[in-house]
Design goal:
The structure holds two protein chains of two kinds. Chain A is an all-beta fold. Chain A is 0% helix and 58% strand. In chain B, the strands form two sheets. In chain B, strands 2, 4, 5, 6, 9, 10 and 11 form a seven-stranded mixed sheet that branches. A four-stranded antiparallel sheet of chain B has the order 1-3-8-7, with no helix packed on it. The chains are: A mainly beta, B mainly beta. At the A-B interface, strand 4, strand 5 and strand 10 of A face strand 4, strand 5 and strand 10 of B.
Chain lengths: 112, 114
């Protein structure tokens, strides 16, 4: 089955810096890749997603890139703010399968 | 903005007892899911449900678990004969369609087995 690896496990940046989180997936049939932000004790919240027919998607300070050949996708956050501090999870799913397979999460800490 | 709602927020149960976790998906959504997250770990898929039947389930979702849509709004997860290792946060999610559609999560039920 699908396996999603995520790096780094923790990431500390200064406010205003950029942050990049990377994920790799194992099954080339995966074609939908969402990113979720989870604050302590809260629900995972979808922040951005990308489909396999698109190489990049941007929403204000957040962007996701997808390299299907290498089977990896990345989350880019620019101009980070303290409120970006949370755990970020990548996920992948395949056509015909509704389940999301999550990565292990990245704890992002943005220091003022 | 419509949300997925879950009750209770916290459930404490003795080992061996049965628990029912409840969810109200977003009203126009057709696909429903249960995930669990053991403290400090990643979110794990349990089961997906569409058109009143299970469409996919994981290895975790064994005979101890069952799901039901008892009426037009609720979606439940039943865990029979609970074990200590069932202690986790259980999230319900829903999506409009099953493919390429965002899954929206509820706030979760923290299940503690004593």
């Amino acid at each position: 089955g699908e396996n999603v690896e995520q790096h780094p496990s923790t990431l500390s940046v200064q406010e205003g810096d950029s942050a990049v989180i990377k994920c790799t997936y194992s099954d080339s049939a995966s074609n939908y890749f969402p990113w979720y932000k989870q604050e302590l004790g809260k629900r995972p919240q979808l922040i951005i997603d990308i489909r396999s027919n698109v190489g990049e998607k941007k929403d204000q300070r957040i962007a996701v890139t997808l390299n299907k050949t290498a089977k990896h996708f990345s989350l880019h956050i620019t101009e980070t703010q303290p409120e970006d501090s949370a755990v970020y999870f990548c996920a992948a799913s395949m056509t015909g399968f509704q389940k999301l397979v999550f990565g292990t999460g990245t704890r992002l800490l943005v220091s003022p | 903005e419509p949300e997925v709602t879950q009750t209770p927020s916290h459930q404490v149960t003795q080992m061996g007892q049965e628990v029912i976790l409840r969810c109200v998906p977003i009203s126009n959504h057709l696909y429903f899911y249960w995930y669990r997250q053991i403290l400090g770990q990643k979110v794990e898929f349990l089961v997906s449900f569409y058109n009143n039947e299970i469409s996919e389930k994981s290895e975790i979702f064994d005979d101890q678990f069952s799901v039901e849509r008892p009426d037009g709004s609720n979606f439940t997860l039943k865990i029979r004969s609970t074990k200590l290792e069932d202690s986790a946060m259980y999230f319900c999610a829903s999506s409009v369609q099953g493919v390429f559609q965002p899954q929206h999560f509820g706030d979760g039920t923290r299940l503690s087995i004593l």
